[in-house]
Design goal:
Layout lengths: L1 H16 L17 H5 L18 H9 L3 H12 L8 H15 L4 H24 L6 H20 L12 H16 L8 H15 L4 H12 L6 H15 L9
Helix pairs in contact: 1-9, 1-10, 3-4, 3-7, 4-5, 5-6, 6-7, 8-11, 9-11
Length: 255
């Protein structure tokens, strides 16, 4: 019986500490994006314009005006809500005129035309306000230009493919998440170890408990393995929370 228990202890310790090298594993560096992968990327919520020569898609142009970036949010707020130009909107109109020029320079003709019209209105307005402190707005032209931008972009943004639904987690995955959350709330240092390693350690305790005479083997395993990868306290918690999550039939064997 002693021999079999010793063998079980050695095997369990090997499983528990396999590949650890006594240190927390470091995350592998993210792969460098190549020009080939960059070309296949989906449109960014903050489209940028590196060249005045290439025309970008309607969707990318619209994301530049109605996307998630701070610049786009400012543009969206102005284009959707400002119905007239006055002293309160003078500085904002000047900034937006520059943004419209940047986007319109590479937009497709359908969007470039109303952008150019609105940019012209803003330029004329800011110049007149600087020179005379007043401006006579042609509301029809202003409304036509803003409507052209909003109509085109509403169509493009509404047609953007919906994000893939997040797959539902299995009961096993939910149990692993609950275990990791619980054990790391007590031992934040376990964040430095991969999920799979911590889960595997817990499941190995369950494996030992499932063998005849496994209870005392677990105690010896924890004492013998402490410090090689996990601390004594971490191993006790991995054991306790792991049994609760993955093999609750062995809960009576816990101290």
């Amino acid at each position: 019986m002693k021999a079999s228990r010793s063998i079980c202890l050695i095997v369990a310790a090997a499983l528990l500490l396999a590949g650890c090298g006594g240190q927390a594993e470091q995350a592998a560096p993210a792969p460098t994006e190549t020009s080939e992968t960059a070309a296949s990327a989906t449109p960014s919520a903050e489209a940028t314009f590196e060249s005045d020569e290439a025309t970008v898609s309607l969707l990318d142009s619209c994301l530049s005006l109605f996307g998630t970036s701070a610049v786009a949010k400012d543009a969206e707020e102005f284009l959707l809500n400002v119905e007239s130009l006055d002293a309160d909107t003078a500085s904002e109109a000047g900034v937006l005129a520059a943004r419209l020029g940047e986007v319109g320079a590479r937009a497709e003709p359908e969007l470039a035309k109303p952008i150019s019209e609105l940019e012209g209105i803003f330029d004329e307005f800011t110049q007149a306000w600087d020179d005379r402190g007043r401006f006579q707005l042609d509301n029809g032209t202003y409304e036509s230009a803003t409507a052209g931008i909003k109509t085109t972009c509403t169509r493009e943004l509404d047609a953007e493919p919906a994000a893939e639904p997040t797959p539902e987690l299995t009961e096993e995955q939910l149990a692993e998440q609950a275990f990791l959350s619980r054990v790391r709330s007590v031992h934040p240092n376990l964040e430095n170890f991969p999920d799979a390693d911590v889960v595997a350690a817990a499941r190995n305790f369950c494996l030992v408990y499932s063998k005849p005479g496994g209870d005392p083997v677990v105690d010896q395993l924890i004492t013998g393995a402490a410090g090689a990868k996990y601390t004594l306290e971490e191993l006790h918690s991995i054991n306790q929370f792991g049994v609760t999550a993955f093999c609750p039939e062995h809960i009576p064997l816990l101290d």
